[in-house]
Amino acid sequence: MWGFIHKWHRKIGITAAFFVMLLVFTGLLLNHTDKLNLQNMFVKSNMLLDWYHIQPKGEVSGFMVNQHWVIQINSRLYFDRREIADHIDNLIGVVVLSDEFVVALDGSLLILTLSGELVEGLSGAEGVPAGIKSIGLSEEGELVIRAAHGDYLADLDTTEWQEEEGLAVNWSEPQEIPKDLYDQLLILYRGKGLPVERVILDIHSGRILGYAGVLLVDFMAILFLLLAMSGVWMWVKYR
Amino acid sequence: MKTNSLLFCLYCGLFFNPHVFATGNYQEPSEFIQEVFSGDVPKISKIWIKKELKVKIREIMEHDLGVLRLKYWKKDDRTVWILEEIGKERPITAGIVINDNKIESIKVLAFRESRGWEVRHPFFTDQFSDAALKENKQLDKHIDGISGATLSVKAMTKMARLALFLHQEIERRPN
Question: Are strands B91-99 and B78-86 parallel, antiparallel or unpaired?
């Protein structure tokens, strides 16, 4: 009996050693995830990004105004090849006024400089009409918003929204994004799609290998238990 | 009978799962502003984030705001700020009222994270009442944290400090 337990304790020990090290290492990292800022560090490996299926979901929409592209990929907004905002609602359209771009989202407007810097966002708090459907310019070059309850002439300086009917408006329309630009943005998008924290958490729990990985970690946990029990048993015998 | 039991379990699960009702828009910013000024809302004012101000804001927020201009509403000694800060992954929107360089009230208007939503409760937000800014741009009051909501607490504290700082900046400037 003694020889049997000793032999299996050694076998289980050597099998479990790698997983103990892996769990200790990932556990230590996860315990200090905020300090290490792991949620804001992103995986660059294409293999891992493919493994996690990091791809844009749904339609990618883009508007070209004044030789510049404003493009939305999922919740992120890009100005040409630069990300300018995240966690945004659906992109509706873009127009250019004399010294700024006005980007219309579902429930708000973003004001950009002509070089694409975000000046500010305007929402319901500033009176932006709810349920924006389109954005455009009137024949006189005034900003017009088509919202759920009608068309509004907008004055962004005074943030006044005047309801108007029968305006002749040149509405902003989406355009097909050039393939090379789309490919470059896809690299940018994927580059910020998978936080390191997610991968470490999944290695720690085994989920990186799907359900099979979870079962493997369960199996290892049982091995650790056997190791502890046989260790205690041997300690008692030696004593 | 079986169906009823199943529905009951489903109902209980929904009712007692705190995450079901935790995230969302609690109040529209426009309603918050109306409420603060009792319907007599002043015109929107704007403050440009220029170089010097940007550096000081970075000290408070630990990052740039990402905008060149911020809006606020001012009447007498009171200013109201609608600010956003990311807790862990998604932005928290807060409405902050500053009166005579002290926080009058702070309210979570929208919470989009999956954890840390407890910061919206008055037991937490009431702690900020009457807090002012010290010279080192920290609050002069201790804010008790909430376990499991560390990052949301941090985000709320940063927004409170930023609103106090911006209020001071405005008061300092000639009209």
Answer: antiparallel
Q: Which of residues 136-195 of A touch B (CB under 8 A)?
A: 158-159
Q: Taking CA B154 as the corner, what is the angle to CA B153 and CA B157, rounded to the nearest 5 degrees?
A: 85
Of residues B32, B69, B90, nearest to A120 (C-beta): B69
Examine residue A26 and state whether it is found in any structural domain, yes or no.
yes
Query: Residue A7 belongs to what domain range?
Result: 2-41+195-238
What pTM value is reported for the model?
Answer: 0.73
Window from A7-11, A82-86, B14-18, B99-103 with minimum mean pLDDT: B14-18
The Cα A130–Cα A125 span in angstroms is 11
Going by C-beta distance under 8 Å and a sequence separation of 6 or more, which residues neighbour residue A134?
A92, A93, A104, A145, A146, A169, A171, A172
What pLDDT, in 10s, does the model give residues A123-161?
A: 888 889 989 999 999 999 999 999 988 999 998 888 888
Instruction: Give the count of alpha carbons within 13 A of A17, CB side only.
Output: 6
A118: nearest CA partner in chain B:
B67
- One domain, residues A183 and A199: no
Q: Is the ipTM of this complex over 0.95?
A: no
Taking residue A49's Cβ as centre, other Cβ atoms within 10 Å add up to: 18
User: Residue B70: beta bridge partners?
Assistant: B47
Domains identified in chain A, total number: 2
